[in-house]
Specification:
Number of helices: 14
Order of helices and strands: HHEHEHEHEEHEHEHEHEHHEHHHEEEEE
Structural class: alpha/beta
Distance between the termini: 29 Å
Largest sheet: 7 strands, mixed
Radius of gyration: 21 Å
Helix content: 25-40%
Number of strands: 15
Strand order of the largest sheet: 7-6-8-9-10-14-15
Strand content: 15-25%
Length: about 425
């Protein structure tokens, strides 16, 4: 059991047991339904809990993807329905809701989740039932042989990709790097990625401090970090933990002594605090609205989102809802329906550009190969308006060279 599973109080065995004792697990469900029947997409996400803002953004973007495809006639004339369920950021709850989506609601595929443990629980249920799952949560684990299946596709970036991109822009040979790390699977994945990048660049790791998920007070940790005399502090956590840690590092004056970097620089956490808290922090991202200046599909996505939501702009994690659902629907369109085998084949060969430039799924692990943004949080004086949060430092093109090798994941090359 990994630390994320311990935190949420669920094991893989428990998840599988919850699927139903005595149930025969099918390699592929029979999908023989009336042609006029709607295409149903299950969408579990933590609407309640510390990632609720990101989850609500994902729902908006996913609903937009469905609307745009329905406006074009749906899938072979069939209307698409998005069935949203609150997984409450709990692996057991996510497994139950996913099973209901499959057994009761008869969904044709599942997209969603926003946590390492939760997405793995969803993946256990979907692969046991032979249902396609497109994960939109960052994770290294879901691509590894113990969790991967032919039904599993990973739309989100993974920590290996984001840490490598951020380190390339901030680490230098001889740099002293300290780490503040959330003590669960995702935090450890980010730490591993940064350490790997540091070794390749020649940066020196001077120490690491672990903290529990949901830590409100970092005041006892900051002096320990300062004593390490790092040039760079890599804060490896997410959501409110990220905002709290950066705010308290700022309160201790640490930004004057070191560069603060994060694997993922979050839109919602940035707007939750004053600009000076995040000023100068550098981090990775899957999406930022200013991509529209260079990427036509980003401009189209922004325009559609603004039209649907009273002029609002899409957020980073929200965009995953759009790209993940859009990729699935494009594959269904290519397959001419919802037959599982045909949709898998279509996803495996899909080349898509719906919001951020070219993407495709790598054959061996179904990881979406895509660009990684490196952003710098702007000072208040630099901002040209409330949405002008970040400067794009780099847009690293998508390449399979950015990923861990298939052999490292325990998978055969294809």
């Amino acid at each position: 059991m990994n630390s994320d599973q311990k935190r949420f109080g669920v094991s893989r065995r428990a998840v599988l047991a919850g699927i139903g004792a005595g149930t025969v697990l099918l390699a592929k469900p029979a999908i023989v339904r009336a042609q006029a029947e709607p295409v149903r997409i299950g969408f579990p996400t933590p609407l309640t809990g510390p990632f609720g803002a990101e989850a609500k953004d994902q729902v908006k973007s996913a609903e937009l993807a469905v609307k745009l495809m329905n406006d074009k006639g749906g899938i072979a004339g069939r209307k698409i329905e998005l069935l949203v369920r609150d997984d409450k950021l709990n692996a057991g709850e996510a497994a139950t809701r996913t099973l209901e989506l499959i057994e009761k609601d008869k969904v044709h595929a599942v997209v969603g989740a926003l946590s390492s443990a939760v997405q793995l629980a969803v993946n256990e249920v979907t692969r046991a039932r032979g249902v396609i799952y497109v994960s939109i949560s960052q994770s290294d684990t879901i691509n590894e042989v113990k969790d991967f299946s032919r039904f599993t596709f990973h739309e989100a970036l993974n920590p290996h990709m984001t840490t490598a991109a951020v380190a390339r822009e901030t680490f230098k040979k001889g740099s002293r790097v300290a780490f503040l790390v959330a003590d669960y699977a995702y935090g450890h994945e980010m730490l591993r990625g940064f350490k790997r990048a540091a070794a390749e660049i020649g940066a020196e790791v001077v120490g690491e401090i672990l903290h529990p998920f949901g830590t409100p007070d970092y005041s006892t940790l900051m002096p320990r970090i300062r004593a390490m005399k790092p040039d760079i502090l890599a804060i490896c956590n997410f959501g409110r933990d990220q905002a709290n840690a950066i705010k308290q590092a700022n309160d201790f004056g640490m930004k004057k002594q070191m560069q603060i970097v994060v694997p993922v620089l979050l839109h919602n956490q940035r707007i939750a605090v004053a600009p000076e808290v995040f000023e100068g922090v550098i981090g990775g991202a899957n999406y930022y609205w200013e991509l529209e200046k260079t990427i036509p599909s980003a401009k189209a996505f922004n325009d559609a989102f603004k039209a649907a939501y009273d002029g609002a702009l899409p957020t980073d994690y929200g965009a995953y809802g759009f790209t993940g659902v859009s990729a699935l629907l494009l594959a269904m369109q290519k397959a001419g329906g919802t037959d599982t085998d045909k949709v898998i084949d279509a996803l495996q060969s899909l080349k898509y550009d719906v919001a951020k430039g070219p993407q495709h799924f790598r054959a061996c692990d179904h990881q979406s190969v895509q660009s990684v943004l490196v952003l710098r949080s702007k000072a208040k004086a630099e901002m040209q308006g409330p949405a002008d949060l970040f400067q794009i430092v780099a847009n690293v093109p998508g390449s399979e060279e950015m990923l861990r090798s298939c052999a490292e994941l325990g998978l055969p090359p294809t």
